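Appendix B. Raw example, untouched.
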Amino acid sequence: MRIHKYVSLTGFCSRRETSRLLEQRRITINGEICDKDSIVENDDLVLIDNEPIPRKVSNLYLAFNKPVGIICTSNPEIEGNILDCVKLPERVFPVGRLDRASQGLILLTNDGDLSNRISQSEYGHEKEYEVTVNEPVTDLFLKKMAEGVPILNTITKPSKTCLVSKYVFRITLTQGLNRQIRRMCKALGYEVEKLERIRIMNIHLHTLTLGEWRELKPEELAELKKDLGLLS
């Protein structure tokens, strides 16, 4: 199998982190530095930093309420990385990203298949956000946000929007362009003052306080895996 899939199945890190390790020439196969196209055979010895990859004991699935300022990376060399907030003996990594200036729900796991399936935008998984802006939210603004906004040389996919209060609205996306909501709002003359993700598919933030994490409930996880096509 390809090196990205091999490393992700060990639960050591995500495919994104694997790409970073490959770029830094820190992964070897049978003593040879490998690249993104390398294939791992059954009897190959794969090392990271000249050490065997530690195997996960069991799968972990966590919901974390990320505060503003925390970076969605499991790289311990980066100050403010997300693992500084989640102290666990087992290694986990964030599923997808939530930019540094935003807060709210992010999933953490050591299950590479689940992480990759959620992160692949072509599946159209819903992610819901509550957004506070600097101007009163109008019906026209909500309509334009829902229909699609030109940003990054494309038009965003249709979304669902609803009014919460004078300056607050909710939006449900099925794609994840870079700083998408902030760019959409700016294109329509608004500035985002607070952005909080409150749902990923069937997993809700609910009463989880900032900086707090919890394990997914069995029924939540079962529904999540079913919707991802990971259960028969």
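End of appendix B.
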